[in-house]
Amino acid sequence: MTSCPVAVRGLVRVLAAALFVAAIAACDSIDPTSNGFGITFVNDTGRAVHLKLCSDGGCRHFDYSDRWKIGYSGEENISDQQLLTRWLVEDDVTGRTLGCLPLEFDRKYQGVVVRISQKVPCPGKTPLVVTSTIASSDPVLSNAVALATAVAIAPGGHVAEFRLRCGWYLHPKRRVRPGLWRVSLNGAAFSFETYPNGTASGISHTETRRQWVRMTEGSGWSGTLHLSPTGSEIGNGPTTDICAGVLG
Predict the structure, then answer these.
(1) What's the rounded Cα separation, in Å, for the pair 6 and 13?
(2) Residue-wise pLDDT tens for the chain (248 aa)?
(3) Are 5 and 81 in contact (CB under 8 A)?
(4) Residue 21 is inside which H or E element, if any?
(5) Less packed terminus of the chain by CB within 10 Å, N or C?
């Protein structure tokens, strides 16, 4: 995945000409008026920080840096052209790197909120799962089993958007098309698999919906959706070959 600079801040930030030309040469257009949208960052870290927009994949160079006070929230702009964009979070007092915020979108979203505490070790390879209004155009998935990755969680944590890699409806059995789907989280059973001593030491942990939301926002989620009228399960443990139609 190409990592490219974003040439906007508040729809008016303009990078130096050389950086802008380099971005255009390496990437699709990132003109905010056509291929960008606003996202809100919230400084919930309990400390003042600097947000630095990374201009390279390793987050060693930056296009700009802004100071964010404790509790401050504000809007930045980001591409909707599936470009992995990173912000580095730096302690305002010590200058120590606290982590990075990798983000990527392939369409415009509304109401995106990124908590700065969602930072991950730099540079961050996997886009964060964000709080966002889920598009009403997304179809609702039910009565199905699928392999999926969480993309966004609606405010309140009752509905999530998942990108399906493959899946099958249960009754009658037929394929589910890949792509973005809305899934209700209400009433589902949630589990996280951890591996303290390698892949052979898997331990399953049952979580509440709120715990699952918090963990997913912090570290992402990919796994299996078992969505049945008699009870839904959402987990990231070992599974059968769902793509081949083996549903367990």
Answers:
(1) 9
(2) 434 433 344 433 423 323 333 343 334 334 444 679 999 999 999 999 999 999 999 999 999 999 999 999 999 999 999 999 999 999 999 999 999 999 999 999 999 999 999 999 999 999 999 999 999 999 999 999 999 999 999 999 999 999 999 999 999 999 999 999 999 999 999 998 776 666 555 677 899 999 999 999 988 999 999 999 898 999 998 889 999 999 87
(3) no
(4) helix 17-26
(5) C
